[in-house]
Structure formats: structure tokens, C-alpha cells
Design goal:
Blueprint: H1 4-11, E1 15-16, E2 21-22, E3 29-34, E4 40-44, H2 54-66, E5 74-78, H3 91-94
Parallel strand pairs: 4-5
Antiparallel strand pairs: 1-2, 3-4
């Protein structure tokens, strides 16, 4: 059975090309569900509804999740509530120079 940490590890490589930061560190991942058949559903957002690279990020996340060994069906659900804010970023990202 897949664990949330397996999904997080896969998504750590998915970056926002404009911000050069992982979608995990940006706090864009709102939810992870894994079923008994290793089906994955993630809920995520973007930093803005006007984000010009939304389709790139969604496609990258989908491909990274589908590449996980023994994964079943993958669903990536884009949501806009709650609205993303910089407070959702990891401390490491907030304070990097």
C-alpha cells in the first residue's frame, strides 16, 4: 500500500517554473488520498487563478504520480478554496535567500 510520504516524495520534484520551487514546499498540495487499490487522488491549488503555468504543473504532477511503482488510478483535482497565500509555504522556502 502506498503511503502519503511516497506521494510527497514524487511531488517534491514537481516545481513551479516561475518560482523555481517545489509545489510541496510552496504549500500547493491540499490533500492526498490513497485507496486500497493504490489509487491516488490529490487536491492542489496554484498560487493564483491566473497562473500561466497551471497546465504545465498539473501535467508534471500527473506524470510523476503515474510513475510511482504499483500505482493504480491517478486523479489530480485543482481547487481554488481555500485561496493560497504565502503563509502556506514551508519555512525553508519562506526564509531562503
Amino acid at each position: 500500500m502506498l503511503k502519503s510520504r511516497d506521494i510527497i516524495e514524487a511531488l517534491n520534484g514537481c516545481t513551479d517554473p516561475e518560482l523555481n520551487a517545489s509545489i510541496v514546499d510552496l504549500g500547493l498540495i491540499y490533500g492526498i488520498k490513497v485507496s486500497g487499490a493504490n489509487d491516488i487522488k490529490i487536491t492542489l491549488t496554484m498560487t493564483s487563478p491566473m497562473c500561466p503555468v497551471t497546465s504545465v504543473i498539473l501535467a508534471d504532477a500527473q506524470l510523476r504520480l503515474e510513475a510511482i511503482k504499483d500505482v493504480g488510478k491517478v486523479e489530480v483535482d485543482l481547487v481554488w478554496e481555500p485561496m493560497w497565500s504565502p503563509e502556506m509555504m514551508s519555512d525553508e522556502l519562506k526564509y531562503r535567500e
